[in-house]
Design a protein that fits this description.
The structure is a single chain. By secondary structure, this protein is of the alpha/beta class. The chain contains 9 helices and 10 strands. Strands 1-2-3-4-5-6-7-8-9-10 form a 10-stranded parallel beta sheet. Strand 4, helix 5 (116-120) and strand 5 (131-135) form a beta-alpha-beta unit. The N and C termini lie far apart (44 Å).
Length: 280
């Protein structure tokens, strides 16, 4: 089947066999530009803890991902990795440094604590990223994300989704290196989605320039502050928040937002309660 453009591959995290014949079958796909790997046993609301780099390096999944990164670096435009283990450092560096055509990157639990420092480096990604999705990545500090986006580390990013990212050890007052240029160096983003974040994490991301913002599972006081403060999320035109039965709060939100020329809606939030602290 030489005309395959997208592969969706289900795997088991505890598979350590090399599957050489399967890899050989993937060796000649001249039109392949999208890979999507999914852990067959992964449950989004489970607590799996941190997997060590040594353990990851021995898995079939790691071998599979690195195989595609090594054999199709100039063609991959879309990469989605959905599972319970972090990327191996070598694989992360290949995604950052070797995929010039990459436009869409979707990572679930792929940036663990062992990759926190590597993710924070100011190295300019070699990709053409326009959309970045990060879910349950413990090694992703929101202040680092905001700085990377603003300074163009990811390129001219237009769509960003952050869901349940970060770790309890994150420093809310993280001081960025003094050499960083904190000015906004890319065009205004189209849409930013922030899910399951406390007040300081949303505040750290408030320097983003974006037309449309989605806030889900964040404190109500945070939503109100965003609507009230002119300097937060510059360029904002539309704010989507989780549905609420508090008509008085929603009225206050809309009045505050109207002063900034922002439309507030409750019908465009893609996230729903699937964690122990936000059950529906």
């Amino acid at each position: 089947m030489p005309n395959i453009r997208k592969l969706i591959i289900y795997y088991h995290q505890n598979d350590y066999y090399g599957h050489p014949r399967l890899l050989q079958a993937f060796s000649n796909l001249p039109h392949l530009d999208s890979i999507d790997t999914r852990d067959a046993l992964f449950k989004a609301d489970a607590d799996y803890g941190e997997t060590t780099q040594t353990t990851v390096s021995k898995t079939w999944w790691n071998r599979l991902v690195q195989y595609f990164l090594d054999n199709y670096p100039s063609r991959l435009r879309s990469v989605r990795l959905y599972g319970m283990s972090p990327l191996h450092l070598a694989a992360f560096c290949k995604i950052r440094d070797r995929l010039p055509a990459l436009e869409y990157l979707d990572l679930t639990m792929s940036i663990g604590l062992d990759l926190r420092d590597a993710f924070a480096y100011q190295t300019r990604w070699k990709s053409s990223l326009t959309r970045l999705v990060l879910r349950q990545c413990t090694g992703v500090h929101v202040t680092v994300v905001a700085n990377h986006v603003a300074s163009g580390v990811f390129g001219n990013l237009q769509y960003l989704t952050l869901s349940m990212c970060g770790h309890a050890s994150d420093d809310p007052d993280l001081a960025l290196p003094p050499h960083n240029d904190l000015s906004w160096l890319i065009s205004t983003m189209q849409r930013v989605e922030i899910d399951h974040a406390d007040h300081w994490r949303v505040a750290a991301l408030a320097r983003l320039h974006v037309r449309e913002l989605v806030l889900s599972r964040v404190p109500r006081k945070t939503e109100l502050l965003v609507a009230q403060r002119e300097r937060l999320f510059s360029g904002l035109e539309k704010l989507s928040i989780s549905p609420t039965n508090e008509s008085e709060f929603l009225s206050e939100m809309r009045k505050a937002a109207a002063r900034r020329g922002i439309t507030v809606t409750t019908d465009d939030v893609p996230f729903r309660g699937d964690c122990t602290c936000h059950r529906e």
